[in-house]
Amino acid sequence: MSEALSRRSERRSRQRAANRNAILDAARRVAAREGAGNLSLRAVAAEAGYAPASVYEYFRNRGELVLALASDDMGSLVRALREAAIAKESGLGPLAAAAKAALEVLRASRALPAAAATLEAGQAPTEAERLFNGRLIAALTALAEATGFAPISDRDRQADVVLAASAIAGLAVLSRAGRLKAIGLDEAALLKRLDWRFSPGKA
Asked: How far apart are CA 185 and CA 104, in angstroms?
């Protein structure tokens, strides 16, 4: 009897995970069309083919949904940074190679800019914020490992990694908005300069 209950519980867990993923996929489609800042649970429910009340079983509010999407994008960022560390792209130093990989993910993400606004407004449940913070720490750790900042056991090293990440995020914002081209700066040249100025041991 307990084995049957265990199988039933496992099936329910798999179904919940599949439903949650379907909602997240629908949210990505809505965000691609309308912008992540304009997501509504009602629009996501319609896109997924669910009743709005069903979506609320998985995400209590819009903020939780946005942070779930952003957490997934942070996971993609971690993978991209780890792959950049393994690939060791020729002609680029470790920080420039990591920054190039990170920029591709950051430019494509609709959820990360919306997550910043969500966090600032305090619109997400604590558990969603904790998940996002965990993924952020994983991304900073992956950046440290990809660029030679690791180990980041002291506060100075942690600050260096945050500053490097901030520079990359700032480049992503400017690049996505077309401002680098508008002011006549070349992204590849900026990445090399970033490596030259901020790689470990060059300060």
From this structure: 17
> Rounded to two decimals, what is the model's pTM?
0.86
Which of these, 82, 60, 70, 168, lies nearest to 117 by C-alpha position? 70
What is the Cα–Cα distance from 69 to 73, expressed in whole angstroms? Answer: 6
The continuous run of DSSP H or E covering 13 comes out as helix 2-34
* More confident of the two residues 112 and 3: 112
Query: In sequence order, what are the residues at sequence separation of 6 or more whose Cβ sits closer than 8 angstroms to the Cβ of residue 32?
Result: 110
Residue 193 identity: R
| The one-letter amino acid at 86 | I
CA–CA separation, 124 vs 172, rounded Å? 24
| Tens digits of residue pLDDT in 139-194 | 999 999 988 887 777 888 889 899 999 999 999 999 988 999 899 999 989 998 98
Give the rounded distance of the alpha carbon of 143 from its chain centre: 13
Q: Is 170 helix (H, G, I), strand (E, B) or coil?
A: helix
Q: Could you tell me the two tokens for 131?
A: 């998940």
Residue 194: CB atoms within 10 Å: 20
Angstrom distance (rounded) from CA 56 to CA 73: 22
